[in-house]
Design a protein that fits this description.
- By secondary structure, the chain is α+β, with helices and mostly antiparallel strands.
- Helix content is 18%, strand content 31%.
- The protein has ten helices and 19 strands.
- The strands form two sheets. Strands 1, 2, 3, 4, 5, 6, 7, 8, 9, 10, 11, 12 and 13 form a 13-stranded mixed β-sheet that branches.
- The protein is globular and about 65 Å long.
- The chain starts with a helix and ends with a helix.
- The relative contact order is 0.15.
């Protein structure tokens, strides 16, 4: 989740989203809710009515506690790149570093919002805390463990400029729900599932399922407050079953206006303050997630030091919707087999390769599949990469058809 400074500004300008855009009525299956013996007894609604309820919600004020659990099925050698499975890793107050940690493990945080100009998120993992605060023209990040402060002027918010409701609290249930709904299209079946209770509130469940085969995603379930239309929980379920890949939801929520002092912040005495406009701000501790190129030997394999194909990379998008696969021709002419047989290759690269990769073969030749519960990547022996939220079989078929 690490990003550049522009992304950190976008993260900082978060707010509770109150509208849902980008879901065409023609793509929604008008499936009414069925009787549910285990959940609250609510009036039946169609998927379209439930989406309209989310879009019509005018809630911009709330406070509460939320939890997000992410289980990508990564081995220990890889989870270290994402900040570990729990606890607030001190060392940098940069918001990018903290948001990146949500990609692994279970995290609890307090949430407060009062319209587009005042929001606060506080990580509660362990005895140390990290707070991200937007209050008018200022954005603050504070890491209690390192006693470091990140500060950035939010010019647009301070001037009362146009606020985009889609720029929501990073990884909050509302923001995740809106992102998912925006991505829904002709390749998605949208219906209504069982009613549930989330944080003590009655809720409907909007269920999105891929129409195509081969996706690692079984469904996305969004619990929607039956009274005010606010998304209370988002669950991303695997097509292989088991516990959710991502489970983000409120455990407590109150829709009253938070007190003004909730968003007040003054840098503690002796704290190191880093201004966000400076080049490389917040990165002096080297905690930026770099992906596979963090391991020596993989940057060249993917065609450049950034691990994104480099200047020689050629990216082609195959398929659409949930079955989309990116084909990257690195142009490096260096494959996994060569890396395996290279006596001078760094041990870290080989360890990472052995921990993730299953050997596969097909018409394309040979390669390895680096697997998680959500995203899989096939790296062929001639240096091509096929990656997507699809199964291993789907990657092999794509490689055979596009060799």
């Amino acid at each position: 989740m690490a990003a550049n400074t522009n992304t950190s500004r976008k993260i900082a300008r978060y707010a509770v989203p109150v509208a849902v855009a980008g879901v065409a009525a023609a793509t929604v299956a008008m499936v009414p809710a069925f009787a549910n013996a285990g959940g609250p007894d609510l009036p039946k609604v169609t998927a379209q009515q439930l989406i309209e309820k989310i879009a019509a919600s005018d809630v911009e004020q709330l406070s509460g506690t939320a939890k997000i659990s992410t289980d990508l099925g990564l081995p220990k050698i890889a989870t270290g790149l994402l900040g570990g499975g729990g606890g607030v890793a001190g060392g940098s107050a940069n918001p990018e570093d903290k948001v990146a940690q949500l990609a692994n493990g279970t995290h609890t945080f307090r949430v407060a919002a009062d319209g587009p100009d005042r929001q606060k998120l506080t990580f509660l993992d362990g005895k140390d805390e990290y707070s991200l605060i937007h209050n008018g023209a200022d954005v603050w990040g504070y890491d209690s463990k390192s006693n470091e402060v990140f500060h950035e002027k939010n010019g647009e918010a301070g001037k009362g400029a146009e606020h985009k409701k889609g720029e929501g609290l990073p990884a909050s249930p509302q923001q995740l729900a809106q992102d998912v709904l925006k991505a829904a299209g002709p390749t998605t079946d949208v219906g209504v599932g069982d009613t549930v209770q989330v944080a003590g509130r009655d809720a409907y469940q909007l269920v999105l399922k891929p129409k195509q085969s081969g996706s690692t995603v079984g469904s996305v379930q969004i619990a929607v407050d039956a009274k005010n239309g606010v998304p209370l929980r988002v669950q991303l379920l695997s097509s292989q079953g088991g516990k959710p890949i991502v489970d983000a939801g409120f455990t407590k929520v109150d829709f009253a206006k938070p007190s003004a002092d909730t968003f007040a912040f003054t840098a503690p005495k002796g704290a190191k303050v880093t201004e966000g406009g400076a080049e490389g701000a917040g990165r002096e501790h080297g905690k930026e997630f770099k992906g596979l190129d963090a391991f020596p030997g993989f940057g060249d394999l993917l065609g450049g030091p950034d691990g994104k194909g480099g200047k020689h990379g050629d990216v082609k998008v195959l398929g659409e919707g949930w079955a989309t696969i990116a084909r990257i021709d690195s142009g490096a002419g260096k494959g996994l087999k060569e890396l395996e047989n290279d006596k001078n290759a760094p041990k870290q690269a080989k360890d990472f390769l052995n921990s993730l990769g299953d050997k596969v073969s097909g018409k394309f030749g040979e390669g390895r599949v680096l697997s998680t519960r959500l995203v899989n990547a096939l790296i062929t022996d001639d240096g091509k990469v096929y990656v997507g939220a699809v199964t291993k079989d789907a990657l092999v078929k794509a490689a055979d058809a596009n060799k």
